[in-house]
Fold each of these.
Amino acid sequence: MHPFESHIRNVPDFPKAGIMFKDITPLLQERFPEVIEAMSQGIDWSKVDYVVGIESRGFILGAAMAQLKGKGFIPMRKKGKLPPPVIAETYALEYGTDTLEMIKEEKSGRVVLVDDVLATGGTLRAAAALCEKNKLHVEGMALLINLTFLNKFKEEGLPVHSVLNY
């Protein structure tokens, strides 16, 4: 068992019946610097201009990674939270649909997408598509938890680095 696992709380039926929510709050409280360091491994930072943090826990993790690696940070938010001009991507997730937005870029760049959990992959696929529409090439994806039994990212050869795999 990975040392981080004892700090992750499983919350059944949240936010909807049938979902087992992975609460990383205790882990962040007890081992935040180690989490950021572990998530930053496996990324070729020489090929990265910015870190894109996906709302909301991706903000926490991504901003810390950007600081650690001396990179800029770009927030990717839920619909209606950023000032215009924005571009958007709507996607399906395991318990409904949602829309991500980011401010329209004037210049291109290379990014790492950061989020806490990869489940079915809807959010991460939408985030990658949104970046590409916005002239931002995705060099990699950094996750704390990958629920590999729910997605096919490894089989598809997508650039995913995750600390914990279930």
Note: Residues 131 and 137 are 7 Å apart (CA to CA).
Amino acid sequence: MDKIIFFFGGFYPIIRIVVVGTLAYLSLLILLRVSGQRTLTRMHAFDFVITIAIGSTFGRLMTAKGVSLAESLTAFLVLIALQSIFSWIMVRSSKFAYWVTATPSLLYFRGQFLRKAMKKHRVTQDELLSVIRQNKMGSLQDVEAIVLESAGTFAVIQKDSSDYSAMSNLPGIH
């Protein structure tokens, strides 16, 4: 059984954390830079999973004596490769993209809160009003639509906007 250390276990573990942590950090930065901007964009579900897994791997490397830098770099490579493969397939297959990502949802349209969609996505009217204020709009009369985007952000479309083509694939638009 390992000895339990509460306050100070010597300088070796601290030096290991500094050296291995620095090398892992630099390696991860390089890997993320090489993997492209898609790895760092707004997150869909699979992006979120990859981000959490990378953070968990990084944290374990920093604190677990039995995990080598080579093992963690391999884990980073596998996670980034999986994310890249998913992104590549997503771009080429709309069915796969539909399976992996959420579709945008219309929550407010032409003066009406779409309660069924709001309930499905667990969004309140107060949240939507807050989104309107954050977009520096004076009132609901200035808003044509509010869309919950696939990455979980809200898009507010102004009433005076003449281009609704970006909304054409949303259910409920006639």
Note: The radius of gyration is 23 Å.
